[in-house]
Amino acid sequence: MVGSLLCALLVSLAALAARAQTATVIDPQGDAYYTPGLEAPAFLDILAASFTISDTLTLTVDVAVSVDALPNPPGSGGVFDWHFGLNTDNSTDPRGFPLPPGQTAGAEFEVEAFWDGTAFSGRFVDRRAALTGGSALLYSIPVSVSGSRITLTVPAALAAKVRAAVVLPGATWNCSTVLVNTFLLGRGTDDAHLADTIGRQPWPQ
Ligand SMILES: [Ca+2]
Question: 129 C-alpha vs ligand 1 centroid, how far in Å?
């Protein structure tokens, strides 16, 4: 009896672990511009982005060319940034990082890949502490590249924070590419140059 109950429980747990929620969005090619008339590089031109929720979070962005051999970002301390915003609660707008201290943005969490001219790195940011006077929490996360796809993986312990914070139906996610001329944006948004954007999308169901 105990054995069969345990077996049923394990089957249920396996089903829970296997059930992933995914959202994929397609974006036009040739629409990546820093400003009108100033074209951004094709590796910042988003063709598709996806967000999959299981035990971990997996976020992919497909761009118009391979990202296997990227140039140095222009400017001192510059990085290219493939960025996801996760807006788990549409009723709150945390202040500050990575924006200047007084500015707010809707995303409670950020997941992003950086290229600094030498290597890729991945970062997960929990911005919620800013709602109660604290500072954003930053974590390094795995990033991998293959051809024209960049894949970010949010480990289970961090993914659990996101899943627990989701307030449906207002939760959204978005994806954008950015040239950042100064790595930490405390100096103002003039340092960040948006290239391409997929606007807010419904949370994966
Ligand atoms: Ca595009």
Answer: 33
